[in-house]
Structures are given as C-alpha cells and as structure tokens.
Specification:
Elements (H helix, E strand, L loop, with lengths): L2 H19 L12 E5 L8 H11 L6 E5 L1 H10 L4 H9 L3 H4 L1 E5 L2 E4 L3 H9 L11 E7 L5 E4 L4 H8 L4 E3 L2 E3 L2 E5 L8 H6 L4 E5 L13 H19 L6 E3 L14 H22 L4 H4 L10
Parallel strand pairs: 1-2, 1-10, 2-5, 4-7, 10-11
Antiparallel strand pairs: 3-4, 5-6, 5-9, 8-9
Length: about 300
Amino acid sequence: MSKGDVKEFFRNSLRRIREFARGAPLEPVRPPRIGLALGGGFARGIAHLGALRVLEAEGIQVDCLSGTSVGGLIAAAYASGASLEAISRRAISTSFRDFARWSLSRFGLASNERMSRYVYEFCGAQCFEDLKLPLSICAADLLSGEPYYFTKGDLGIALRASCAYPGLFQPVEFDGRLLVDGFLVGPVPVEAARTLGAECVIGVYLGMAGPAPRPKHMGEVLWRAFAIMQQQAIQRRDRSADVLLSPDVRDFAWDDFSRTGDLIAAGESAARAAMPRIRELLQPSAAWSARPRSVARPA
C-alpha cells in the first residue's frame, strides 16, 4: 500500500469515526464498479474466455464491458448473458468462412459482411439494446484518425467495423465515416469502459508477450508489424487500465480457432497471476461509496 493509500485510509476512517460520534448514519461501503476492456487478436481473442472464467470463479462481477475487434465480439456475447461454456463451444467451431468471404477490391482482400449474421448466431442479440450489460465497441475512423465508440444500434455493423483489419478486410462505411479495426486507436479500449461508468478497469491485451516465431508469409509479416505498433503505443503512454492482463499467446496463429482449450488456459493463467492485485483494488472503500451508484446503460 502506497503512502497516498495509507493517508486516504486514515482520512476516511477519521471521517467515519466523527460521523459515528455525532450519531450520523454510516453510509455502506461498496466495491468499485468493474469494467472489462478486451483487446483484439483474431483467434487469440479466445484467451479472453479464460480471463472471464477466472473472474467468475473468484466471484468478481463485471458491470460493463468494452472491446476491440474480437474482444468486442467476446464482450458482446458475454454482455448478452450467454454462458462461457456456450461461447467456448461456438468459438471452437468457428472458421474464416463464418464471418468473411474473399472479395478482392482496391480497399481489401475480403468482405466481412457475413459477420452480421454470425454476430447474431454467436451472441443471440442483434442490437446493443438487447444486451444485459452496458457495452462499448471501438473502431477507428480512417479519415479523422480518431476512435469511434459504438454504444447503441446494430451490433453487426459495430463489430464489422471494429474487426475490419486494414488490408485484409474492406473498410465499413457508417454515419459518413470510413471505419476500420479499432486496434489502431484502442488496442485495449479502457476509456470506452470508463465512459460506461467503470471505476476500476481490468484490461486484457493480446499483443506481443516476447519474441515471436519467424514469420512464414506476408500475412504474418503484416500481423507482426501491427503488433509491434500496438506494443510501442502501449509502452509510450501511461497504462490507463487499473490492471492489465497480457496472456502469453505469441505461439498461436491468427486462425488457431481449433486450439480453444490452450488459448483459454493462457487467459486463465494471466488472470490468476493478476488476482492479488485485482483483489487489492476491489476492496470496498468510502471513496467508492461516495460516487453515484448507477451504471449508465448506452443511450
């Protein structure tokens, strides 16, 4: 515990003792509202399920979620109320053809229009308003260079945009914008979770966890280059997540959907390692209790 934490603890304790001495009712303490921010990584996103499994086993309730690319898909499925077992079964049977088709154009090698149907099959929901938990999905505006957060409307459009990996998938036009994969502006969309009312954000990053195997083709060269860019971006700025999990997924290919069990295990391992820090942050305090209790649903 830092000196600042110790001072805050004693200030809060002294205030509550004075309130008790005056006969004022003591307000109940509560843990902070928890947001989960899930990063992108194609099939590697299955590791998110392992992190969620550990949080559930530890009795930690997630109040809202945000996601980029496949992180958005996993977040949407979880926010819909689907069980982790059901999500895992759907993930292991996934193939490229489920959400994409090759369609060569000047702007990309494939179209992800099929994702709209896939999202409904995966999540059982068609729009944000159908979800049981607040959700924000991050995409990148190719023209302005700014993040674009979906919080309402059609889930299919939101996830198509967030998963439109540059060069592979064609950009998605929406609301006068040209949108691509959110990893360019929000590898782990922490701020999106905070706008939904999260006071403590647990992020899951699926980028580089060390040296990767030598690339075998152009696609892996591009994948590695983008991964380096994300890693440098995260290292340059303060990590805004209160806890950042980094499952070791470097040995998994972008389309390793058949290795669901191994990917889930990687997410579980990272979450267990971070659990002492998570427990420390989630201790109820008067500071949390002084804030509004409601979590705003997407407008």
